[in-house]
Structure formats: structure tokens, C-alpha cells
Amino acid sequence: MRSVGAPIRVRALGLLPVVALVLLAIPSHASGAVRTWNGGGATNNWNDAGNWVGGTIPGLADVATFDGTSSKNVTINLAINVAGVDVAGTYGGTLTQAVGSAVTVGASGFSQAGGAFTGGSNPITVNGALTLSGGTFTSTSGTLTVGGNFVESASGLFSAGAGTVALNSGAATIDVVTSETFTNLTFTAGAKTIAAGDTLTVSGATTLTGGSVNGGTLAARGAIAEASTFLGGTATLHIDGPAGQTFTGSATTGVGTLPPVVINKPSGTLTLAVTAGAVIRTTN
What we know:
single chain; mainly beta; 1 helix; elongated
């Protein structure tokens, strides 16, 4: 007989199969998946689980996919944050960014080959590439931030609307169909390369905050502002607006450089409004 207080010995190996069965019974959560819109819900809302195959609304690690499964229109009725958005050429509906719904897309980027996307007034942030090979993309009246490549083919139509496009993050290429017009364009970080032969025309404010711009042509037809943190580049900066323009610069002899500049205004004046101690330095 075991004495009081003596240790109880348990044969641990006999418990292993039971523990293994319990672990197998715990459902695992995938790190990310493709979530396909099937339009089966009672509403058009993004957060209506019935609109998604399997009843799962796309999450942070998922790619939201729109294809021939359903061309039902989509209302992005809340702030969303997903790994990617993929609009296939077989999708014929419209994705609409409703009031109060910021859109954040991760490194998988925003790819559109069909359908339409209509921005609202809240921010849209694409941390990867924005690729428009078909359909129409109408940007937000707020700020569209793109961290990766900005690529537009002849079959896609991009409309900047009244908002700002900010090119952010690391090295990336901007490749449009010969030319594209932006209302306001900001270079915030990274070495950006405009594809050879392409022109980015800015009717409103051109803001050169950080990074550099290389390759093709940047045509500024409104106000231009350059920070001392901008690193210049090899692209040609055309200052060619038909009305009065103001260039505000804060570069010094030590920091801040413009790319090669061509001033070719058909009319109007260009006013230089550099800050105290600033100079105008170009890379040519």
C-alpha cells in the first residue's frame, strides 16, 4: 500500500495518443486565402458574408477576388484591410467605395482587368502594385497612395478625379499608355522611374517630397513644391502650364536636388518662391 504523501507515478507515454487527437481536433487557420465574391447575399455590402464563397469575408491576409462567379455590384461599406484585390476580366460589375470606408491593400497589390472601381472620398492605400490592364478605375477625391509599380495598359482607363496620387515606398516603375493626367501628384519616397517615352501630366500641384524621379517626363502645369529631402533624378521636369505657376523650393547647397528642368510656358508667369537660404539645384 502507498504511504500518505508518496509520489504518484503516471505513465506519460500512454497519454500521447490522446493529446495528439485533441490537437488534430483543433481547427487550423490558414495564413491567407483567395476569397471569391459570389454575390449570394441579401445586400451588395462587402461585409455581408453571404456574398463570399464559403461565407468568409476577406481578412488581412486574404486576396479578395471578383470574377465570372458573379458580376453583382459591390459596396465597400466599411473600412477594409486585405492582402490584395484581384478584379478579373470576367467580372462585369462595379466596386464602389462608400462614405467613411478607407481601403487598405497589402503587398499583393490591386490588379484590375475588368469591371469598374469607383472611389469615394476616403484614403485608398495600395502597398503593392496597382495594375490596370482592363476596366475603369476612378480614384478617390482624397489620397490614393501606391507603394509599388503603377501600370496602365491600353485596355484600362484611369481617372484621377479631384484627388491626389502619392507615390510612396521603394523603387517602382510608372508605366502608362504614352501619357496620363493627374490632378495632384506627390513623390514621397523611393526611386520612381517613368517608363521611356511616357509623360505624367499634373494639372494641379506637383509635390516633390522625397525619393527621386527618373526616366520619362513629368509635366507640371500647376504649382510645384520641392522639399530639401528630394533627391532629383534623370526624368525631365517640364514646367509648361498656360497660366501663372509658382515654384516653392527649400533645397540648399547641401541637400535637395531637382531633376533636369525645361521651362516652356506658352503664357503666364513662373514665380520662384524659395525659402530663406534656399537655392535651385538640378541634376543637369
